[in-house]
Design brief:
Elements (H helix, E strand, L loop, with lengths): L1 H48 L6 H11 E3 L6 E3 L16 H14 L4 H10 L3 H7 L1
Antiparallel strand pairs: 1-2
Length: about 130
Amino acid sequence: MAQRQMEERVEGTEKEIVGLKEMMIEMRKMMERLREEMRENNSYKKEESDTSDGSIMKLKGKMEERYTTTELTKLPVDRSKYKKLEMPMFLGENPKSWVYRAEHFFEINNLPESEKVKVAVVSFGQDEVDWYR
């Protein structure tokens, strides 16, 4: 009886070990994928930060674009986190809400007045573009 219990325990332990080994193999694969992604991201960031003519002004402009201060707190704010925001689509419904969201989009992206209309037109649906023309 005791011998059988010991054999069952050993079998259970061996199965657990096999499962752990499989998990470790999967973790190694995931770590290798992450390493590769990090290499790609680092090379992309390096290409992005290189200036074409070596101009310090371009680099300074990129830093100013990325870090600005808020008027209320005067602390630096990383604006690059907002770059994933998209201009809200206007489909002819609730124009006040769309204008409100569009104004925030313009403010976050520091768009000059001359570009706001161009960006807004891109966010129009087909019927709204026809109306605008």
